[in-house]
Amino acid sequence: MGEHQHTRNVKLIPIGNSKGIRLPKAILQKYGFSDSLLLEETDQGILLRKEKGAKLSWEQTYQQMAQEQEDWDDFDITLSDGLEGEELDSQKV
What's the rounded Cα separation, in Å, for the pair 41 and 32? Predict the structure, then answer.
């Protein structure tokens, strides 16, 4: 996802004796948040993220890659990397 940083203004809302924020549905889906998440305090502020070990499904991975809209037009350049006809020696790899 790179170094893209998006800033949103959110309001604190009362939740009992505490306060909270509402996360937009698109954000919840994008990062796969469902019932719980980790809140990490850092020097720069608060970081919200999924628990470690949580992996994306293949469908979620595809959806996130599709959202990035990366340009793969130059990918074919790897076909002319000069290794045509070379045999890989598995003992050297």
Answer: 20
Where on the phi/psi map is residue 65: left (φ > 0), alpha (ψ -120 to 50), or beta?
Answer: alpha
Condensed to tens digits (0 to 9), the pLDDT of residues 61-81 reads 888 888 887 777 777 766 666
pLDDT tens digits for range 13-48: 999 999 999 888 888 888 888 888 888 898 989 988
Provide the CA 60 distance to its chain's centre, in angstroms.
10
Q: How far is CA 52 from CA 25, 35, 43, in A?
A: 22, 15, 20
How deeply is 6 buried, as exposed, middle or buried, from its count of CB atoms within 10 A (0-12, 13-18, 19+)? exposed
Specify the 3-state DSSP secondary structure of 57.
Answer: coil
In angstroms and rounded to an integer, the radius of gyration of the C-alpha atoms of the chain is 21
At 28, list the tokens.
Answer: 């919840």
User: Is the C-alpha dihedral spanning 44, 50, 51, 52 positive or negative?
Assistant: negative
